[in-house]
# Entry
Amino acid sequence: MIKLTTLSALLCISVQLSLAQTFTYPSTRKTDQVDDYFGTKVADPYRWLENDKSAETAEWVKAENTVTFDYLSKIPFRAKLKDRLTKLWNFPKQSAPFKGGGNYFMYMNDGLQNQYVLNILRGKFNAQPEPFLDPNKMATDGTVNIGNVSVSKDGTWLAYEISKGGSDWSEIHIKNTWSGKESPEKIEWVKFSGISWEGNGFYYSRYDAPDSANILKGKNEFHKVYYHKVGTDQRMDKLVYMDKEHALRNYGAGTTEDEMYLLLSASEASSGNSLMIKNLKNKSAEWKTVVADFENEYSVVDNDSNIIYMLTNKGASNYKLVKFDAENPSTAWQDVIPESSDVLEEVVVGFNRFIARYMKDAHSLLKVFDKNGQFMYDIPMETVGTVDQLSASKKDPYIFYSLNTFIAPSTLYQFNLSTKLYTIFFRPKLSYNPSDYETKQVFFNSKDGTKVPMFITYKKGIVLNGKNPTLLYGYGGFNLPQTPIFKVERMVFMENGGVFAMANIRGGSEYGEKWHEAGTKLQKQNVFNDFIAAAEFLISEKYTSPEKLGINGRSNGGLLVGAVMTQRPDLFKVAIPMVGVMDMLRYHTFTIGWAWKGDYGSSEDEANFKNLLSYSPLHNIRENVNYPATLVTTGDHDDRVVPAHSFKFISTLQEKYKGPNPALIRIDVNAGHAGTTVLGSSKPIAKQIEEQTDIFSFLMYNLGMTMQ
# Structure
């Protein structure tokens, strides 16, 4: 008996040791860098990792990736997951057609093309698509993607942005829509720009060329607006506007559709803009100020001669449509579509009517109004989802819109504004049955009693026993709502028994500007409290348990994950912060980070410094705490949230955490911030599949899942 008991005990110890794997991480050099913030000393020993161009940083990246990919390669179902993910991803995709000149244009992807191809449909929307711009031919590895495109009023020229390696820096090129020939010039150092035509040229925004050492990390200052004439060298471009007194402002210019007015919008933070207007038909006209401050949002929708229609949240947290006289913009504005209980997200003009996209409890509605703002009728929605594309032309009765859900990609609809009839324009063919899954919306109370919505999606037949592996996703910032959207990788998770939940936490715009403001600056902790409450709801309602719960978010959502995993590590088994803002004391010193002060505040102010320090993921990692299994992801060409955030965070976690869970970083080479849109991502599909294979292999393996 004694020998058997001893043997049994030894076996148990052996099993525990195998589960409590010891990780050997790269040795990361520390320095004695210390900063003084209002008398508080803050160490920053890994600051040298901010130098993305150094040989030492490059060697560190290689060493970290070696550890990470060695771990991932040993996950037994990783190859099977990649095969399934590839099969699910391989379905035809296309965008809603949009009109330019006398032609229509439409993005298409045959399934696994790295980038979408822009097609031209000559003369009518049901013409045979002809490939017009194919970024897959611009780089064999798919790392060149198309950004903004804009067609001249006469339809002759199409100007388009391309970016390389996922960078925010882009170039503008010009192509003749009839001959297909490229104009010889190239417009460089473009960033955060539109393309807006007037005559035989267009307005765009750019910075001065940076020095080679700071292309991907240097602070972006003194944004300028230029006018470029087709066929001329960029050096001949006319400077339209610059501000020598305010280095940290962004400027964007746009023309009305009739090219009668030029509009100049300026911003100095993540929300709020000023607006000026100039009459282009009057050569002696000066700029007229519509709004001088940056307190609210203003976006011009359309004009009828001198009458300008504008979407704004001034005096209307949920937004409204107003009109004013362009020649006398200081006179009182008139409400056209007043504020309602739902958030007015977008207004377009079609067939001399306003088509308004609303958000109600984080899903979309479409309504039609006449030009006087009188409600006419609702456009039908087949299910609860997100309208992620809305395309209309002023004189045409046909509009196109899409409907996206958690369980199926966008279906495109054609709607006749005259007859009120709609038809399905395109529905993708899939390799699974969406009807096997369901989505429900629930509401839970946050720490302060605020009611917060959340979507929960899963395979039908779920048993609420607290044992379901669950992934909770959130964002919570910058006035960006989180609404139903299809992601292929989530289907792999759900078809293997996973539950996916998206919490509509404060900081977004799900309930207008008040919802956004409630998650900013000194109120940022509300965002984290909401997300923690969402996790506690999923646990209390028996969807899952802390041992079966993973969390994920990207960019500002990466900050979210980093903050809650350090505040409540007991709630989560897995944490995957992607391209996250992790150093809240120095974020504003890199590239466009200064523009985020409107959401975060900055360490340059004492009250905001104390608040930022209280939740900054990098600065709240403690010793002797059992953190979740963590996979940090970033890209070496990310020039929006620079990879130093992730580099310093993982170095600190690996230094201080001595528990059994992995603390790894996956650094994508020749990849940038790569946010996803309806047209996929600037990151090529091959890279997306590789990345999501690794993320979901890590998630599922550490939640104790297997592949069916």
The first strand starts at residue 34 and ends at 37.
